[in-house]
Every structure is written in C-alpha cells, then in structure tokens.
Write a structure and sequence with these properties.
By secondary structure, the protein is of the alpha+beta class. Helix content is about 50%, strand content about 5%. The protein has helices spanning about 35-40, 40-45, 60-85, 100-130, 135-145, 185-215, 220-235, 240-260, 285-290, 325-335, 380-385, 400-410, 415-450; strands at about 300-305, 310, 315-320, 345-350, 360-365, 370-375, 390. A hairpin with a 7-residue loop joins strand 4 and strand 5 (about 360-365). The longest helix has about 35 residues, at about 415-450.
Length: about 450
Amino acid sequence: MSDPNYAQEPKPSTSSEPVSASQQISAPAPKTSATKDSIPSAAEILQPSKPSLTGADDKVLSVAITTYLNTIYDEFDRQLTRTLTHLAEPPPAKEPEIVARLMGMLVESLTNLAVNLVGGGLVNLAATAGGANLGAAVRSAVQAVSKPAGQAVGVAFVKQSVPGSARCVAPETKQRLPEEPGGKSTLDEFGARQQRQLSSRKADANVIVALITSTPNLDHRRLTDLAVQLQSIEAESDDGSRFAQQVTIGWLNFCSAISLGEKKTVAEPDLLGANEPGGLASAGIKGVEQWRGGHDGFVDVSIAFPDQIHGLEGIKLASMRAQTSAGAIRILRTLESPFLGTPIYRRVWLGQGPSPLGWDPALVLSPDGSVNLDMDNPILAAVGRMQLTDIDQTRSIDDDDKEIVELEQRGDSLSTSIDRARLVSLRSKRASKRVERSRYAALGGSMLISWLARFSMEGLT
C-alpha cells in the first residue's frame, strides 16, 4: 500500500486509458507543406528581389555569372546609344590623316573603362579558381581568347588614361577614315566602332566564363564571390550613367584633339610655346591658333580683373562656357565634379571689359591634369609679382619691343653695323625680361589655379 504523504509518478497513458486534465503532454508539431513553401507567388515572380546566391551550386552560379555579365554589357550599349544622340559632329579636322587612329584610341580607352568593371573578377577566377584542376588544354584556350582581347578581362590596362586625350600618332598608323556611301559622319563612325568593340568583348568574356566553369572541381568559394560581385555591379543603377559620362568626356577630348592637331612626342606640351619664356608671343602662327582658336570640346573660363591688380584681390569669375552641344553640357553637369578635377580641356582667359580685345588666354588645363602656362602673359606676371599694377600697363607694348619690330622690319636694309648690334642687344635684353616675367607668371599661375579650386562644373553654360 502506498504512503499517502508521497506523490506517485503518473503512469504513461495508453490508447485505452483516459488522459488526466492535469497531465502535461507534448503538442504535435504543425504540419508543413514543403511543396507550397517552395513555389513563389505570382508577385514574387513579377517583382523579385535580388536572389541570395548563398548555397547555390556551381551550375546555378555559372548561369548567374553569365546572366549578370550580359546585363552589364547590354546596359553599356544602351547608354552608348542614348549618349550619341546628345553629342555633336565636330568640324572638319585640320589633319584628317590622324582622325582614324585617334578614334581607334578613343574606342579602345572607353572599352577598357567599361569592361574593367568585370575584368578583375574574371582574371582572378581564371588564375585561382581552377588551381591545378584547370587543365593545360583549357588554360591554353583561355589564353588564346584573352590575348587578342585582353582588354575584356582587364589584363593589359593596369593604368587607365583619360578617354580621348591621346594626341601622339605613330606614322605607320596614320590613315583617313574610310569613305562611306551616303557620307557617314564622324560621330556615326565612332558609334559603330564602339558598339562593335563592346559586342566583341562581351562575347570574349562569355567564352572565358564557359571555358573556366567547365573545369571540374572549381574553387566554389571564388565562383560564388565572382557571381556576387557581378550581381552587385548589375544592381548599381549609376554604372550605366558613369559610362555615359565617360563617353561624353572621351568624345569632347577627341574633338579637341583633332582641332589642336597632332603632338610629335608625349613630353611635348599640349599647346605650342607653353611653359617656356616667350610663351604665346613666340609660338608662331600655329601656336596662336591653338591658344586663341575655337576648339570643340573646350571649356572656356573668363576671369575679370579690376583696374588695379594686386595678387588676386577683386577678381571675379565672369563666365564658364563649353564649346559643345547642349546635350553634352547637361551630361557634364551631372558629373558634379570640381572644375580642376574634370578631365577635359579647360582654357582660362584673363582681362576685363566687353570687348574680346581686352582678354588673353593665360593657361590651359589638359585632360590628364597637366598645366600649359603662357609664361609671357603680363597679367599672370603682375599677379605673381604681388605689387600694385595698373591693368593698362599690362597691355602696353614695351619701348624696346617697338624698336625691335622696327629694326626687324627693315631686315637686310640695316645700313650699319651699329643697327645690327643694336638689334642683337635688344633681343638679348628682351630674352632676359621674358625669363624674369616667366618666373612671376609661373607663381601667378599657381595662385590662379588654387583660386579655381572653389568652382565646379555645375555653373557650366
């Protein structure tokens, strides 16, 4: 008989015994429908979010890589087509034989910028994902595809140049653009070439992906990383707009390059006479055309000076105008970049008054950031000298220069050795003055460039 002072453990119930109301039992787990949960709704299909690639197998990752890769290239093509409608045809080139090569260099540069987004990931995948399992045959095939189209995977372009900024053309590469029936424009030719290049690189990249992912025992983690990387790039809506901006910058620089003409060497300044004593005054006829001429793609900035020059006191930004189409100007404004950081040609004029005769070009900033100074510009020299100077004094012709002109006009008719010696002496004196002026102009140019750092392209008209 049991002791009533001690509770007894409940007996396990059977199917034939009733269950006590006070007895605790485990509730059955709710039934789930695996089929229902695995089928997405119509809304999820029509408006899906970015799928997670975590846990995806190699086959799914390969499909994801190819899909996102194609989408990225297709967006580049759409942005190119749209941007071309906003660009303007340049005037006839002064040196037609360099146009085809400069256009080829522009297309090459823009293609690098576009495919570099995906290139690094593909190279990394080719180099590491397969490891020892990437067989010799597959490796050779990847290299065969990569060599003629190395740009597609970013191999050959560690350092990228500004699109369209090149002006040195090897003699053996000079050729005119082909004559097309119906008079195909330069802009149309550029658009066709750029689209062909993007299409070719897209095909090459797809072949590389197919060759690599066909290798057994790939590094799954690296394959996942590449798929996630491309998914992220595809999701960034501004990638396409950035490409449109680069196309615009490249086209403006191309137009400027064919207007300025060919450079003989890379070390040569972009404008004749720049950064040397004598500056524009000693640049010759072609130099004057480069400094003062109208060039498609240039942004011209005018800085107004007061009657009395003392450093940069009282100067004002009078205007900022681009010599290009209204559509290109709108695209440049979207850069929201500082004036000094925008990689196009920017020419700075100094002076005052409504007449063009009161203004002179003082410096030109090149797309690559180099500075071209007219080191004989009197206003620049007055700025660097930091002494109160009447602006009219900067416009007056030196008496010695007047005498030099008079003697040079007489030429061979100089009757005496005294006149000839006088001319030699005056030229030597002028050279010394120019060296001194160039030192002050260099300082004034540096001060002016620092002052320009406060402005952006938003004020462009």
